[in-house]
Amino acid sequence: MHELSLCQNLIDQLTDLTNTHHAVAVARVEVQVGVLSGVEAQLLQSAFTLARAGTVADAAELITEVTTPRVSCRWCGAESDTPPNNLCCLACDSFDTQLIRGHELILARVELVKNEPLTL
C-alpha cells in the first residue's frame, strides 16, 4: 500500500507548514486525487488515520476530492471530461489528446490551529 508512504510524506509537509506558520496543530487537510493517479482515495483515508497518530495532524480531518479525467484535443482544441478508460476527444473523436486533469495528487488546502493568547 503506497498510500501509507504518501501519507507519511504528507505528514512531513504538514509538520513543515505548522513550523513555518507557528501553529500547534493541523485541523483539516484537503487533497485532490485524480482517478488516474494510481492513488485510491479510500485507502488514502485509511493510511492517513495511521500516519497522523502522534503528529501535528493527530486530530486532523482528511477531505479527499476525486477528480475525473479531462483532456485537451490537439486536433480541434476542445476540452472535455472523459471516462478513465477512453481519453479521446468527445468533440471530434481524435486520440491526439493531452491529459490535463485526473492524474494529480494535490495538497489543496490546510487549516492550521494556532495558540491564541488568553485575555483576562
TrEMBL record:
Pfam families (alphabetical): HypA
Binding site for Ni(2+): H2
Keyword Metal-binding: yes
GO biological process: protein maturation
GO molecular function annotation: nickel cation binding; zinc ion binding
Keywords linked to the UniProt accession: Metal-binding, Nickel, Zinc
List of residues binding Zn(2+): C73, C76, C89, C92
InterPro entries referenced in this protein's UniProt entry, alphabetically: HypA/HybF
Task of the protein: Involved in the maturation of [NiFe] hydrogenases. Required for nickel insertion into the metal center of the hydrogenase.
UniProt cross-references to HAMAP family, sorted A to Z: HypA_HybF
UniProt record similarity statement: Belongs to the HypA/HybF family.
PANTHER family given in the database record: HYDROGENASE MATURATION FACTOR HYPA
Protein name per Swiss-Prot or TrEMBL: Hydrogenase maturation factor HypA
Organism in which the protein naturally occurs: Candidatus Contendobacter odensis Run_B_J11
Gene coding for it: hypA
